[in-house]
Amino acid sequence: MEGMEAVAFQIISNVGTAKSLIMEALYEARDGRYDEAEEKLKDSRTYMLEGHHAHSGLIQQEASGQKVEFSLLLMHAEDQMMSAETVSDLVTEMIKMYREMRQNKNGGVSF
Predict the structure, then answer these.
(1) Which of 62, 76, 78, 89 could disulfide-pair with 68, CB 3.0 to 4.6 Å?
(2) Which residues are reported to carry the modification Phosphohistidine (predicted)?
(3) 31 is in an annotated binding site
């Protein structure tokens, strides 16, 4: 595997791991384990960053005049990255909601 394919798989692998950790964080929060959830979100950001670094390398390559050939594999990698970012944003908000719901339930406050 060379060049573009290796970068695409690097993106897919890293953001796929990030997405899995993000979902694990949601399951932890659902069960009231917020510290574990936050740790998984933190770990997921490391993988997202690695995926972004690989992607940025392609952008810099093209910006410097070296043509980056479009491929279905690259499109899939970018789609996975965008999907993981969206899931991360949604899960972060859902974890906040789980916390608030648990606090309101335990504190007697209702919506």
Answers:
(1) 62
(2) 76
(3) no
Instruction: Determine contact, residues 98/29, Cβ cutoff 8 Å.
Output: yes
Provide the 3-class DSSP secondary structure of residue 71.
coil
51-81 confidence digits (pLDDT tens): 999 999 999 999 999 988 889 999 999 999 9
- Say what angle helices 34-63 and 3-30 make with each other, to 10 degrees: 160
How far, in Å, CA of 103 to CA of 78, rounded? 38
53 has catalytic annotation: no
Domain ranges of the chain: 3-103
The alpha carbon of 53 is separated from its chain's Cα centroid by a whole number of angstroms, namely 13
Looking at CATH, the fold of the domain delimited by 3-103 is given as Methane Monooxygenase Hydroxylase; Chain G, domain 1 (1.20.58)
Q: Of the spans 27-31, 60-64, 66-70, 101-105, which averages the highest pLDDT?
A: 27-31
* pTM for this entry: 0.87
